[in-house]
């Protein structure tokens, strides 16, 4: 959430930001309500003060008549206070609903507009090259090599789930090892997180845990939800805690399953592993000082690029436009990998993203830092970034590394964990 004082002093800019992000919000109404709340709060405090004075004076009354008069005056003051409090609660609830719906401000360099306005920043070290043979998508390749069982999973859990088999299972574990090894060398603390979190943590991070618009699975009769990303658990790790400034930045590498309802997702673009209800992800998360967050955001993007350059996958990096940003993000970069089997002739598909959420999440979760020798505390900045989302990385590897004979070359950086150079072809024939 935003600082209330900032909203009151910059209402026009906040409204323009909401409009640019396609968010419906009446900032002027919030300002009016918040101003009324502050005035009512002062009146309530004054009525409470007067009632206390009268209450203390009752014992000093000269006779019964004066005593009863002072009791009546106290009763009227309490009734007035209760009426004002009811007005305050009603107005504060409406103001709070608007306040919680306001998105983060937007980086001045982020493109303005809808999804189509996102700007390409760079391409990867590996270039897209035409394949001079009939291209198969990952579903066809998986069937040929017995890598993924969609039908078996559908019988057990429904559409959108899957079994990874044979080399696909080995590739999942190899991708985890590859990403974690790189991040640990960069000073990240490896962390295996819970797959469940309370509703207040999801709301604090910026996810909607319940309601018609949620993409979250909830556990009936419990205030628990399956996490859509370990951003939720890592972000909530320091909720309500004040961190020493000297300990920042804190860099965490989270390994977790991710669960998403993917309500409304359909069509050829969502075929196979692209939109599924469960997948494994290695996530980067950082808590920083405010002046550190922009550099950390660029650093996260560079790490994502390093991971996919190492895999030899063609990609592009996009600076995401304001209308396509989630509520917490101040700025967001997406890395889209080239997927030759997607669409007609190949398409880019998102495989990672990284966001600088500034102090938006930390205000909701009350995560602060304290500088030695200074009074008071301030809110940390939080950042998240996907190191590797296994399901989509598998699509990119299978489709980009397929060969004319239908075999699939395994990226060199993964071979030490998979134990072979390719899936199918002459190598498997020899075995």
Report what the structure shows.
With 431 residues, the chain is an alpha+beta fold. It has 2 domains: 4-101, Helix Hairpins; 115-430, 2-Layer Sandwich (BirA Bifunctional Protein, domain 2), CATH 3.30.930. Helix content is 42%, strand content 20%. The protein is built from 14 helices and 18 strands. An 8-stranded mixed β-sheet has the order 1-11-12-13-16-10-9-4. Strand 14 (368-370) and strand 15 (378-379) form a beta hairpin. Helix 3 (27-57) packs antiparallel against helix 4 (64-101), helix 7 (166-185) crosses helix 12 and helix 8 packs across helix 9 (230-236). The model has no long low-confidence stretch (mean pLDDT 93).
Low-confidence stretches: none
CATH C-level class of the largest domain is Alpha Beta
Count up the helices.
14
Mean pLDDT reading: 93
Strand content: 15-25%
Estimate the helix proportion, in percent: 40-55%
Shape: elongated
Find the structural class using helix and strand composition: alpha+beta
Spatial strand order of the main sheet: 1-11-12-13-16-10-9-4
The CATH H-level homologous superfamily of the largest domain: Bira Bifunctional Protein, Domain 2
The CATH architecture term of the largest domain is: 2-Layer Sandwich
User: What is the number of independent domains?
Assistant: 2
Number of strands: 18
CATH topology-level fold name of the largest domain:
BirA Bifunctional Protein, domain 2
How much is the radius of gyration in Å?
A: 28 Å
Largest sheet geometry = 8 strands, mixed
Could you give the distance between the termini?
58 Å
């Amino acid at each position: 959430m935003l600082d209330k004082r900032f909203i009151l002093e910059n209402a026009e800019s906040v409204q323009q930001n909401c409009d640019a992000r396609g968010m419906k919000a009446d900032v002027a109404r919030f300002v009016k309500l918040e101003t009324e709340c502050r005035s009512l709060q002062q009146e309530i405090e004054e009525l409470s003060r007067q009632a206390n004075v009268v209450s203390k004076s009752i014992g000093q009354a000269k006779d019964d008549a004066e005593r009863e008069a002072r009791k009546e005056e106290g009763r009227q003051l309490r009734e007035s206070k209760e009426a004002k409090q009811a007005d305050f609660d009603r107005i504060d609830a409406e103001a709070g609903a608007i306040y919680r719906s306001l998105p983060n401000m937007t980086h001045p360099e982020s493109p303005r507009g809808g999804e189509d306005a996102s700007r390409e920043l760079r391409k990867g070290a590996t270039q897209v090259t035409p394949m001079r043979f009939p291209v198969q998508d990952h579903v066809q390749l998986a069937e040929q090599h017995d890598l993924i069982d969609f039908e078996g999973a559908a019988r057990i859990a429904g559409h959108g789930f899957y079994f990874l088999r044979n080399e696909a299972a080995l590739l999942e574990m190899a991708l985890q090892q590859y990403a974690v090894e790189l991040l640990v060398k960069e000073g990240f603390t490896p962390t295996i997180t819970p797959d469940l979190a309370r509703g207040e943590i999801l709301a604090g991070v910026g996810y909607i845990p319940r309601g018609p618009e949620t993409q979250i699975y909830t556990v009936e009769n419990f205030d628990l939800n399956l996490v859509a990303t370990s951003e939720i658990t890592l972000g909530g790790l320091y909720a309500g805690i004040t961190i020493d400034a000297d300990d920042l930045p804190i860099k965490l590498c989270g390994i977790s399953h991710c669960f998403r309802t993917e309500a409304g997702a359909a069509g050829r673009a969502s075929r196979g592993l692209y939109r599924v209800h469960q997948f494994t992800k290695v996530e980067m998360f950082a808590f920083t000082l405010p002046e550190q967050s922009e550099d950390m955001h660029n650093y996260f993007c560079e790490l994502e690029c390093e991971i996919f350059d190492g895999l030899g996958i063609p990609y592009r990096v996009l600076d995401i436009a304001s209308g396509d940003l989630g509520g917490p993000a101040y700025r967001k970069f997406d890395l889209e990998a080239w997927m030759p089997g997607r669409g007609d002739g190949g398409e880019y598909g998102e495989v990672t993203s990284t966001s600088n959420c500034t102090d938006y999440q930390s205000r909701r979760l009350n995560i602060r830092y304290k500088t030695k020798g200074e009074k008071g505390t301030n809110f940390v900045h939080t950042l998240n970034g996907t190191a590797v989302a296994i399901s989509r990385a598998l699509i990119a590897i299978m489709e980009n590394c397929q060969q004319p004979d239908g075999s699939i070359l395994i990226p060199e950086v993964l071979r030490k964990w998979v134990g072979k150079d390719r899936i199918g072809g002459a190598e498997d024939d020899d075995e």
